[in-house]
Amino acid sequence: MSWMAWTLPTAIFFAAVALSLVVMTVWERVSPSVARRGVLPMVTTRGDRFFIALLTAAFLHVLWLAFTDAPVVIASVLALVAGIALMRWG
Amino acid sequence: MPETMPDNRAWLGVLPVLLVVAFSAVIPLMTVVNYSVQDIFDVHTRLFVGFDWYRETLRDPRFLDALVRQLGFSAAVLALEVPLGILVARALPRDGRWVGVLLVLLAVPLLIPWNVVGTIWQLFARPDIGLLGRAVNELGIPFNYTAEPLHAWITLLMMDVWHWTSLVALLAFSGLTAIPGQCYQAAAMDGMSGVQVFRHVELPRLKSVLVIAVLLRLMDSFMIYTEPFVLTGGGPGNSTTFLSQYLTTMAVGQFDLGPAAAFSVLYFLVVLLLCWLFYTSVIAERGER
Measured between alpha carbons, how far apart are the two ends of chain A, in Å? Predict the structure, then answer.
């Protein structure tokens, strides 16, 4: 797999994404999601909110990198908080 | 929990497709992400640089200019092709022996390869030997798409309209033919004008096919490469250099694999966002959730 030019941070990132998909699948199996409407302007399932949280995290990082030189870890923490809020109240 | 678990074994049938997608899309995308955080010198010599390429790309005026041009081009394409496609579809007869002939004629531009379309328009619009360029100049209107950015944009948009309006027209036609005749009869009994029939009878029933048409044209125009490459080569200057062309120059021309990979990931994110927004709007429109 060396042709894929792996690095430890990207390996951890993709492992986390894969793990989260497995957790979401198991969670859905144990406790099926019910579509509901929260603060987001549409009805969402748990999977929808997770996808929106991932997309939000990606664009938070993009905006952070575009506009500031401050450590990216702050954007990651903000993305985590936003993700939890979206999953809970989205 | 429900009393009986749903039988989801049919999902196993999707497994082969999942494997093909993983092989052809997911693993290459993961590789691009890996490249985007490294400075690649050769296959065995790489240096981890974190988010540096992303930061550099996001602050690169050429990238931002190409992104703005790309968004402007896609917006113009949609603004021109969707209304024109609906107009063409409404003008077509719904039945009779000519319908088949007209539909085949409409489909002809869709069958022409992109590079051939670019070449046709490159010759057609040339101010010295092209029929269009020469005719416009003979009319006393100076036109030279190789030197004037505005003329290059007009030529590009005309070319795209020529190539792809048929797709919108065919989709809209399929939507129109699905409208029951009784709806038109009821509209006639109510004394509706042609505009009212379109507004209250046809447009609501066309919404689904139009969303598909808009999505297809948006995605395709957002990823356009071959036609502008053949027609203008991105010029004059950089006035018609869109994202894909700039990306190709970076990845293939300059062999800057790290920055090109970061560029690709950002490009992918924008496309993903647009797709999601459209998908969500379609779902919300249909009230499926």
Answer: 39
